[in-house]
Structures are given as C-alpha cells and as structure tokens.
C-alpha cells in the first residue's frame, strides 16, 4: 500500500503523537528523492530496526552551491512513492518549502572543522545547508534513529557530529553503499550521465579498490596516488577534485597508520560530479 504523503508539519506531528502513544520506535530516512536501490536499502534498514518509518523527500536549496545543479536535480515524486510501496513505509514527508524555511527564516547550523575539507572545500556552504536541513528534519520528525548512506561518507560524519553536539536524541546509523554491477555507486545524479559516460563511470570504484589493496599491502599513498590519477584520466575522467587518504573519524590527513582510514574521491565525468569512498583498515605501520 502507498504510504500517505504529508506536506505540512502539523500533519506529521499528529501522526507522530499517535505513534508515540503506541510506544513505537520511529525511524527516519532523509532523501532528496529520485529514489534508487541505495535509498531503498536505507528504508529496508530502517524497517528492520524501527516500528514506524518516515521517508522525507526535500530538494534542499540551501545545500546547492550551483544553480544549474539545483535546477536539473531530478524530481520524480509519484515514481518515488510507488517504489516505497512494497516497503510498508508509514509516511512520506514531502514538506512544502515554507514548512522548512518559513518567511524570515534566519538560522544556520554549521559544523566546524569536519566541513572545511574534501566536499567542503569544493562545495562551499554545502554542509551548512545539509546540517541545517537535517537538524530541522531530525527535530520535526522526532525520530529515534536516522539512516544515511556511506556513499556520502563526509555527510554521514557531519550529521553524526551535529546530532551529538546539539544533544538531539537520535541514533545516526550509516549503511553500506549500494553499487551497480560495474561497481559504480548508485546516485540520483547518475541519471544525468550519457550512456557513454555511464560505461566509463564504472572504472572509478576499481581504482579505489586497487589503491586500498596496495595500501593494505604496505604501499605508501604518496607513491601510488599519481598512478591512480593517471588511470582515471586515461579512462576519460576530467578534473579530479580530490583523491585523498584520511582518518576515517575526523577526515584529517592520516597521521597515525594504526587509525581506521578512508579513501575518498570526487571526480568529474561527462559534466557530472561523482563521489565515492572506501574503507582502508589494516594499514601496515
Ligand atoms: N548508492 C547508495 N548506497 C547507499 N546509500 C545511498 C546511496 N546513494 C545515496 N544514498 C543515501 O541516500 C540518502 C539520500 O541521498 P540523496 O537523495 O542525495 O541521493 P543520492 O543518490 O546521493 O543523490 P545525489 O546525486 O544527490 O548524490 C543519503 O543518506 C545518501 O547517502
Ligand atoms: C541528507 C539530505 C537528504 C539532506 O538534504 C541530502 O543531503 C541527501 O540526500 O543526502
Ligand atoms: N547526496 C548528497 C547531497 C548532495 O549531493 O547535495
């Protein structure tokens, strides 16, 4: 059955009070729509861990630092509701813009440090927009747990820190990246890749896997990163905004090889910006 689509906070709150009376554990999956298997894996995780699940769909203008990207962001609400139907979601919250940013709205949530690097460097203001809307969604939905994809690894770190710093009583759970058969991380923006670019895009993850394997074997990142960049260039990738090895918890440059590490990449292909990442534990010291 298709879940009710709610556009007003007051309607969400009414449902929420009923669920609280039932003693239900409430799960939240925030999205910007154009749902794919990656989003649906978060919904499945939420359903497995919670009694009631809210999926939100809101294309948040404050996190777009590129007007064209915002204008071209896919909007597919009906198809999204159909994809959610088999999961038994309890509510789809598609807030009218004034429910999130009413006239005179003036508050920004900003997580320092963690947001200065990687995505933060190349998408200025992006994480302020993310932290602000996610804080609002956490508070509006009053959920006990929220589910985010590791595909947006830095975002996962940012919202976890934001909830902790603001004492929002919610558990943030990261979920593994869902991939196409080629290894390409599923992403709504993949819809904008040409068939030719789609063919090339599958080469990004194997490059990360290869780097990770070499690092696990004791290679020095500085010695192997140029080769990886060259492989991507040969495959047809354009600008590589970053390809970095970072501390998995703080996203600072890795200073101690005994800490969990993460390789993260953002690269342009056929006019579309792709991001991906991979865990690299077991680095040799
Ligand atoms: N392939 C994936 N595997 C697991 N989670 C994912 C995947 N893609 C997106 N998600 C998660 O779904 C949530 C909503 O993401 P969003 O709606 O931005 O989708 P997206 O596909 O990442 O789109 P975009 O093209 O904007 O990056 C986020 O927590 C995101 O990390
Ligand atoms: C978390 C989020 C829904 C906030 O707008 C968005 O950044 C996304 O879809 O990953
Ligand atoms: N998937 C993260 C949201 C964004 O790229 O704007």
UniProtKB/TrEMBL annotation:
<dbReference type="InterPro" id="IPR004821">
    <property type="entry name" value="Cyt_trans-like"/>
</dbReference>
<feature type="binding site">
    <location>
        <position position="63"/>
    </location>
    <ligand>
        <name>beta-alanine</name>
    </ligand>
</feature>
<keyword id="KW-0067">ATP-binding</keyword>
<dbReference type="InterPro" id="IPR014729">
    <property type="entry name" value="Rossmann-like_a/b/a_fold"/>
</dbReference>
<comment type="similarity">
    <text>Belongs to the pantothenate synthetase family.</text>
</comment>
<feature type="binding site">
    <location>
        <begin position="32"/>
        <end position="39"/>
    </location>
    <ligand>
        <name>ATP</name>
    </ligand>
</feature>
<dbReference type="InterPro" id="IPR003721">
    <property type="entry name" value="Pantoate_ligase"/>
</dbReference>
<keyword id="KW-0436">Ligase</keyword>
<feature type="active site" description="Proton donor">
    <location>
        <position position="39"/>
    </location>
</feature>
<dbReference type="InterPro" id="IPR042176">
    <property type="entry name" value="Pantoate_ligase_C"/>
</dbReference>
<dbReference type="GO" id="GO:0004592">
    <property type="term" value="F:pantoate-beta-alanine ligase activity"/>
</dbReference>
<feature type="binding site">
    <location>
        <begin position="186"/>
        <end position="189"/>
    </location>
    <ligand>
        <name>ATP</name>
    </ligand>
</feature>
<dbReference type="GO" id="GO:0005524">
    <property type="term" value="F:ATP binding"/>
</dbReference>
<keyword id="KW-0963">Cytoplasm</keyword>
<feature type="binding site">
    <location>
        <position position="178"/>
    </location>
    <ligand>
        <name>ATP</name>
    </ligand>
</feature>
<keyword id="KW-0547">Nucleotide-binding</keyword>
<dbReference type="GO" id="GO:0005829">
    <property type="term" value="C:cytosol"/>
</dbReference>
<comment type="function">
    <text>Catalyzes the condensation of pantoate with beta-alanine in an ATP-dependent reaction via a pantoyl-adenylate intermediate.</text>
</comment>
<protein>
    <recommendedName>
        <fullName>Pantothenate synthetase</fullName>
        <ecNumber>6.3.2.1</ecNumber>
    </recommendedName>
</protein>
<feature type="binding site">
    <location>
        <begin position="149"/>
        <end position="152"/>
    </location>
    <ligand>
        <name>ATP</name>
    </ligand>
</feature>
<comment type="subunit">
    <text>Homodimer.</text>
</comment>
<dbReference type="Pfam" id="PF02569">
    <property type="entry name" value="Pantoate_ligase"/>
</dbReference>
<feature type="binding site">
    <location>
        <position position="155"/>
    </location>
    <ligand>
        <name>(R)-pantoate</name>
    </ligand>
</feature>
<keyword id="KW-0566">Pantothenate biosynthesis</keyword>
<dbReference type="GO" id="GO:0015940">
    <property type="term" value="P:pantothenate biosynthetic process"/>
</dbReference>
<comment type="pathway">
    <text>Cofactor biosynthesis; (R)-pantothenate biosynthesis; (R)-pantothenate from (R)-pantoate and beta-alanine: step 1/1.</text>
</comment>
<feature type="binding site">
    <location>
        <position position="63"/>
    </location>
    <ligand>
        <name>(R)-pantoate</name>
    </ligand>
</feature>
């Amino acid at each position: 059955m298709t879940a009710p689509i709610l556009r007003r906070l007051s309607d969400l709150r009414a449902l929420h009070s009923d669920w609280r009376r039932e003693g239900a554990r409430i799960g939240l999956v925030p999205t910007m729509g154009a749902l794919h298997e990656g989003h649906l894996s978060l919904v499945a995780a939420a359903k497995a861990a919670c009694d009631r699940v809210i999926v939100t769909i809101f294309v948040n203008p404050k996190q777009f630092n590129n007007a064209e990207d915002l204008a071209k962001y896919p909007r597919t609400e009906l198809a999204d509701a159909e994809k959610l139907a088999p999961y038994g979601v309890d509510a789809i919250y598609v807030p009218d813009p004034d429910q999130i940013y009413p006239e005179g709205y003036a508050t920004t949530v900003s997580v320092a440090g963690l947001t200065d690097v990687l995505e933060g460097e190349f998408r200025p203001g992006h994480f302020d927009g993310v932290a602000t809307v996610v804080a609002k969604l956490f508070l509006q939905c009053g959920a006990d747990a929220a589910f985010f994809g590791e595909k947006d690894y830095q975002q996962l770190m940012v919202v976890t820190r934001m909830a902790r710093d603001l004492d929002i009583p919610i558990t943030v759970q990261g979920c593994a990246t869902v991939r196409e058969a080629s290894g390409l991380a599923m992403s709504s923006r993949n819809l904008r890749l040409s068939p030719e670019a789609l063919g090339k895009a599958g080469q990004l993850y194997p490059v990360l896997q290869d780097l990770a394997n070499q690092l696990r074997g004791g290679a020095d990142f500085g010695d192997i990163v140029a080769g990886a960049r060259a492989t991507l260039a040969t495959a047809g990738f354009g600008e590589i905004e970053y390809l970095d090895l970072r501390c998995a918890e703080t996203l600072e440059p890795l200073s101690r090889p005994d800490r969990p590490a993460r390789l993260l990449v953002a690269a342009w292909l056929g006019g579309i910006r792709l991001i991906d990442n991979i865990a690299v534990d077991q680095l040799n010291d």
